[in-house]
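Key result, reporting period 2: structure in, sequence out.
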């Protein structure tokens, strides 16, 4: 319940941040921060610190959702928007398919921290790639 309340609050705050720094930066920066917190979860040293990083991660992990939707509406025409959303959602779904198998294998090898570190690092590379690919494509928003 606490995690859901934190997530809901972050969804309300995301547009306020986007007004200041733009949709793309909000989407990427908050997701980068979220993934730093994800990597820190197993490295924290204590249960309480791990829980704190987990809650911090949740406080910014979903801010990319409304800003991604707004950003896509901003950079794609009406005709391009549905196919672009379909491609984005399909890529995200397909990209997540091997995750459970890999994590299961790592856990059986007692490499409990590695799934957090690898997934956080991969997501950070994804975020940086998105930023580098689209930073010059923003229409009519000087903040981005």
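The corresponding designed sequence is given below.
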């Amino acid at each position: 319940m606490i995690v859901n309340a934190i997530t809901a609050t972050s969804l309300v705050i995301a547009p306020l941040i986007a007004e200041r720094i733009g949709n793309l930066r909000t989407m990427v920066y908050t997701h980068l921060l979220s993934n730093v917190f994800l990597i820190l979860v197993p490295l924290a040293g204590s249960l309480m610190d791990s829980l704190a990083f987990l809650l911090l991660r949740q406080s910014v992990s979903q801010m990319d959702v409304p800003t991604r939707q707004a950003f896509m509406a901003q950079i794609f025409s009406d005709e391009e928007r549905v196919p672009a959303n379909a491609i984005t959602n399909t890529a995200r779904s397909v990209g997540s398919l091997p995750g459970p198998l890999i994590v299961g294998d790592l856990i059986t090898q007692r490499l409990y921290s590695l799934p957090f570190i690898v997934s956080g690092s991969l997501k950070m590379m994804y975020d940086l790639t998105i930023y580098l690919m689209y930073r010059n494509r923003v229409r009519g928003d000087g903040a981005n």
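The radius of gyration is 16 Å. The chain has a mean pLDDT of 90. This case is discussed further under Risks and Mitigation.
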